[in-house]
Amino acid sequence: MTPRLDFKAAAPAAYQAMLALETKVRGFGLDGRLVELVKIRASQINGCAFCLHMHTADARAMGEREERLYLLDAWRESPLYDDRERAALGWTEALTRLADTHAPDADYAALKAHFTAEEQVKLTLLIVTINGWNRLAVGFRSVHPAAAGDAG
């Protein structure tokens, strides 16, 4: 894949604004492993290899199990995720696929059952942020780092 544009260099002030939002969202106090699962799931849906590379590495560094990372795309069929994670993942999918889902009441009910009103807003802003990063990385064809000897 050939990068289209270095968006950081092309618009440094805009990039800094996005980083400021990311920094704020990271400071919300949501569980770090849950945050990474949400980022990975949105990035899977959006086909963002750059973000998948980054957030799977971050999840592993936080102690996330490989098995849960491998099965994340099929979280509905796996017993490896608890009810709170399922609510967050359902909300992530609903908002990431907003044009198709229109944020169904059932997904919101699950969210509301496991997250306080404040946490609902924080989680939603997390989803907004990762979807923004995905659109920058996919749109401008950001390429993730490759290990020595990898094809490509």
Question: Outline of this structure?
Answer:
By secondary structure, this protein is mostly helical. Helices cover 68% and strands 0% of the residues. It contains nine helices and no strands.
Layout of secondary structure:
Elements: H1 7-10, H2 12-26, H3 32-46, H4 49-61, H5 66-70, H6 83-96, H7 98-101, H8 105-114, H9 117-139
Helix pairs in contact: 2-9, 3-4, 3-6, 3-9, 6-8, 6-9
For this entry, give a set of tags.
mainly alpha, 152 residues
Number of H/I helices: 9
Strand content: under 5%
Rounded mean pLDDT is: 96
Percent helix range: 55-70%
- SSE-based structural type: mainly alpha
Task: Please mark out the parts with pLDDT under 50 across 5 or more consecutive residues, or reply none.
Answer: none
According to DSSP, the number of beta strands is 0
Radius of gyration: 16 Å
Give the termini separation: 8 Å
Principal-axis shape equals globular
Largest sheet: none
Taken in chain order, the helices and strands follow as HHHHHHHHH
